[in-house]
Amino acid sequence: MNYKLSDQYLLLFTDCLLTKGVVNATICDTTRGTIDIIPAAYYELLEELKVYPLSHVYDKYNEGTHEHITDFIRFLLKKEYAILLNDKKFFPEIKREWRSPEKINNAIIDINSLRLDFRSIIEQLDDLNCQVIQLRIYSNLYSLDELSMIINLMRDTSIKGVEILIKYAPEYQEKDYILFFESHILISSLHIHSAPIDKTVGIDFGYKGKSKTALASIKTKIYFIKEQIVDSTKCGEIKKSYFCLNSVSDIMHNSCYNSCLNKKIAIDVNGEIKNCPSMTKSFGNINKDTLQEVYSQSTFKELWNVTKDQIDGCKVCEFRLVCSDCRAFLENPQNKHSKPLKCGYDPYTGKWHEWTSDHLIKRRAMQYYQLKQQ
């Protein structure tokens, strides 16, 4: 096909989202869960291709660039990122919005030496229509039997899943952890820190069928982690492997809100109620304040609306719509719009480096947060 003579339009599919950075741009395929990095100059070309017919776009550029334009169009069509259309009105642009009915979507509960009234906490989270709980336990304060009783309290509530991080206990064998996982449909993930070795154990919930598709849909893993996790300071690191592009909804959430803190509530190891356990500001204590009382404070929801477009570094980064943004650890702790401390990506060069590398601003921030050099 001679694209130079075509009156068709080239449009990205609505589940393939384009984001411009300084030197690069990204195409995020939310259906396949993949990201392709392209030069930022192609962002402007794509913007023109969705407005003007192909022939008009070719006429705007000099002859020497036509081969590059053709190669790029072929790349988009081969990857099934885009489609050629005679009438673009049948492909309206997706609205940049995100809505969710619950007051609180997810909660983090950190535990070390303080036992909590989980019956009361779960009832309060149910009243807020909380969907997901993350339990992070740094000690052996609770046995597996006690954890089972806690999870059973979540039955017939709004809670649809619980992510668990617990400390390895030598009195339990691998089969005990497997039985614990398989006994609770609400458990969505189980990580066991301070283990003797790094190891993953497959879980198939006793499936005996022959369907590989069915097995793949239910099979999961328990992760044994040798690293000792003793507090919440491990939180907030920015890595490519942490990018979230499971759905258009995830991208829209990242675009419209702070996806890490929006509709989140947390209880730290001292019972302090916060936006995140790693943050310093407390809005109350679970032993004397209710979660509803904290939720009702306007200042509690202040950071929910701090989006990537407002954050230094993030606002010019091509990964801003798939990246989890941390407001707990900042390069400038006095500026709520500061770049995340634990991000080692430079959007001005398009290169990654270790976030702990010798940089005066980062070293000062690490001292402020009392973080150890990794």
From TrEMBL:
* Matching Pfam families: SPASM (PF13186)
Q: Where is the 4Fe4S-binding SPASM domain?
A: 260-318
Q: Which domain of life is it from?
A: Bacteria
The protein's name is Radical SAM domain protein
The organism encoding this protein is Fulvivirga imtechensis AK7
